[in-house]
Amino acid sequence: MSQTRILYNDRCPICRAEIAHYRKRAAAAGAPLIFEDLNRADLGGWQLTPDQAKRRMHAALPDGRIVSGVPAFAAIWAALPGMGWMARLAMMPGLRQLADLLYNRVAAPWLYRKQMRREARGLAGPGGRA
Fold this sequence. Notes:
Strands 2-1-3-4 form a four-stranded mixed β-sheet, covered by helices on one side. It has one domain. It is an alpha+beta fold. It has helices spanning 13-29, 43-46, 50-54, 70-79, 84-90, 95-120; strands spanning 4-8, 33-37, 58-60, 66-68. It contains six helices and four strands, in the order E-H-E-H-H-E-E-H-H-H. The N and C termini lie far apart (36 Å).
């Protein structure tokens, strides 16, 4: 079974908590998901700069495509038992555009700014990393 790799920011407490939830479900189900902390990953393989990686969640699909934002979440949901309906719903025409708008214009920029402020204040992430 091919695996989907998920790139996320483990230093962001909100991102870390959400990924912990998905990771637990994936482990229990044997779902083909690999979660990579952008602070430890080879971002060259993702074709992303550190700043680009921090601005949104990304997924490397089994076919080699890299997607971000709503399609990355849909990739997670599609792989987890009981969550496939969320992936199908989020990717429906009309709803996909609305979800993209909310993620790209509200959620992702808010999370990015919040995390940049945390880092500027020197607040540490897991293991004492800032």
